Amino acid sequence: MAKESTPRRKKKYNRKASTSFDVVLPADVSTISPVVGWVMRLVSELDYASGKEFEIEMAMREALANAILHGCKADPAKKIECTVTADKDRGILIVVRDPGPGFDATTIPSPTENQNLHHDHGRGIYLINKLMDEVKYERNGSEIHMRKF
Fold first, then answer.
1. Torsion over CA of 21, 78, 67 and 27, rounded to 10 degrees?
2. Could you tell me if 96 and 124 are in contact, meaning their C-beta atoms sit under 8 angstroms apart?
3. What pLDDT is stored for residue 115 in this prediction?
4. Which of 30, 45, 65, 112 has the highest Cβ tally under 10 A?
5. 72 or 113, which is more confident
6. Interval 40-69 mean pLDDT
7. What's 126's domain CATH number?
8. In sequence order, what are the residues at sequence separation of 6 or more whose Cβ sits closer than 8 angstroms to the Cβ of residue 92?
9. Helix/strand/coil percent split, the chain, to 5
10. Which domain covers residue 122, as residue numbers?
11. What is d(CA 15, CA 146) in angstroms, rounded to the nearest whole number?
12. CA-to-CA distance for 82 and 97, rounded, in angstroms?
């Protein structure tokens, strides 16, 4: 694991090679922007990510917010793990893990259904699925894998 709230690259950056880093952050919404900012600086250096920055940033913000608010119940004593791997052939993979019990993604109501249109919550999972090319849930839903090619 990387030092708390300090992203660490596993491999020296090279546009043709893959790069990866891990970060552990407290379950506090104020930690989202610094981590996302760091990832977006990395993404901006990748030629193959050009034009995909908005989708990556929004999906990552939503996944981190969900992990903090739902997985950790906004308890800053709990920790979120985030891993980002960028590879030209396999795209950008973002994995967010929380210590919560997880959830069943199939039971999340669609925010596009009439009864949910005016709710002030419930759009994060929907947005992530629309913005990213692949989305998988592991560990009973307490871990999300998001990929952008």
1. -80
2. no
3. 77
4. 65
5. 72
6. 96
7. 3.30.565.10
8. 43, 46, 49, 52, 56, 84, 85, 86, 147, 148
9. 35, 25, 40
10. 19-148
11. 21
12. 6
